[in-house]
Amino acid sequence: MPSSVQLFRDQKYHELKRQCIQQRRLFEDPEFPASDESLYYQKAPRGKVEWKRPKDLCQDPYLFVNGISSHDLHQGSLGNCWFVAACSCLALRKTLWQQVIPDFQEQEWDPKTPEKYAGIFRFRFWCFGIWTEVVIDDLLPTIDGTLIYCHSNVENEFWSALLEKAYAKLAGSYEALDGGSAADAIVDFTGAVAESIDLVQGKYSETISEQMKLFEDLLKVHKRGGLISCFIAVCMERAVDGERRRGLVPGHAYSVTAIRKLHLGERLTFSFKAEKLFMVRLRNPWGNREWSGAWSDNSEEWKKVSNAERKSLGLTVENDGEFWMTFEDWCKNFTDVDICRIVNTSYFSIHKTWETKMMHGAWAKNSEPLLNRCGGCFDNVETFLQNPQYIFDVKKAEDKVLVSLQQEDRRRSKKVGKGDNIIIGFEIFKVEDNRSYRLHKLTVQERVATSPYINTRNVFLKKILKQGRYILIPTTYLPGITTKFILRLFTDVPSKLSMYHFRTPEGVLRDGLGHLQESPDGLLAFLCAQDVFAG
């Protein structure tokens, strides 16, 4: 459980619930009312929307019916398959969903004590580095008595619909969830470190060695509690080809629910190139469209596998939206994968323990060049070094370093047309071991790493660095763009990550033109300025 939690809109769950029980009324949330403004800012749902409580939709409502499962939920009419795919991933990890749905047993309906039910629920999200508790009422949008957004397979199970409402409240409206990234939702659910990989650009369908490296990486992430989702870009030609698509839906997020090496019996080796197959299991949030190619539910290939092996894999032949495919076929058909690593920081774990450091920062504009902090990417030679700069040390001969840069969530700005992510990235330079001030000119410093520059909320880089001192410079792609960010650094030993602040007063003077000057020696800057601008 998170050690400290902030309250969204300063709403105190226990206090509100106690008031409702004392006054014998059901909670109605004034911060996210059952009205059109909570549904949409531009595009209204088709049909007459009525807000109803679960007790008005079924006889015996529950948060969970027979536990929680990735099979529980379906998308509804909102274009948020990415959110539903993230929920499917979340349902696989009990320790993770119990963080998002705290004290779930206390929140559950109890038919024996209906007087204790107040129509109020709470959920927690990792919002920009801080665990945040969101309180909602249980009024849900329906048309003709049916939930119009995310819902469960079972009509009296409501955890997914209520979780979606809390997430919509955080975003400003349900419509703000129309279009997004499964990786963003998973990060908000868990605080994970997100990495996006372009399978086409990386040529994973063509290069077997890279394909196997990726498989082993995904297998390790999955075994260590990480969450994975994938999708097919609509713009890809192969995504439009119905024959090659074979039941897969372009522009649609899928959750990866299992990754396995399937060992084949000796009697089967004549049919295959290797003794084992590399397999992935996926789930479609729509729940009724599945892969129809090799190793799909009813394919001939499964007949060659023993019943015991099929049972251990959890193979079903139902049209439930979950299916297996070979990793090779997966690389050929999907264009992008989002990997969300649950980075282990516990010293009591059997797995590798990472040292972590998180910093909040901002790209901020200032007319003084030395105070400006939004200089754009490396290509902007004159302004690049005006960006925020962070120093860290690598203490070992070599150390694997994980870097995550996350920009502020912009979904709440969608209604004013400013909801798109900014293109961001970062550079890492190896600098002098004794450097204690900002870079103002690149001379002997070595540029050792460059992240992808992309308009995703999270940018990730994994790099092995040699012992020494480094400066990390997070940037927007274009200069003059302002927003907030968080920077996370994971290393094997403490890195002493810190921000280089502008040095005053001894290291800063004004030159003859009135511009600020900074150097490791304020006196030297002063003498140089006097010499250049005197007489």
What can you tell me about this protein's structure?
The chain is α+β, with helices and mostly antiparallel strands and 535 residues long. 21% of the residues lie in helices and 28% in strands. The protein has helices spanning 13-23, 36-39, 54-57, 81-90, 94-100, 104-107, 159-171, 182-190, 208-223, 237-240, 242-245, 307-313, 327-333, 522-533, and strands at residues 6-7, 50-52, 73-74, 120-127, 130-137, 140-143, 146-147, 151-152, 193-198, 227-231, 253-263, 276-283, 322-326, 336-341, 355-363, 390-407, 424-431, 446-450, 458-476, 483-491, 498-499, 508-510, 516-518. Strands 15, 16, 17, 18, 19, 20 and 21 form a seven-stranded antiparallel sheet that branches. Helix 4 packs across helix 8 (182-190). Mean pLDDT is 87; it is low at 237-241, 266-274 and 519-535.
